[in-house]
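Entry 14. Ran structure prediction on the chain below.
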Amino acid sequence: MGEIDDSRSARPGDAEVEATVLRELLLLHPVQMTVEELIRDVAGDPDDFVERDAIERAVRDLARAGLLHRNGDFAIPSRAALRFDELFGD
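Output, structure tokens:
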């Protein structure tokens, strides 16, 4: 009781955006990217509010899940994400 089921509150496509954001960060690691750079690289139209919001939510949710860290404006993959990528990446 008291737990929130995130699967019902997630918007359609959120998991896909999260995967895209994490892939971009892992691909460019050790380069650190700002969230604004991620938006420019990932969004089809970086000025579109819906796309910007989806990417910002993805960064927030990936950080909450422990797959990336925020350092000011920068987003970097966590050690867990990097290790997973070593084990299962292409």
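Residues 1-9 have pLDDT under 50 and may be disordered. Will compare against last week's run tomorrow.
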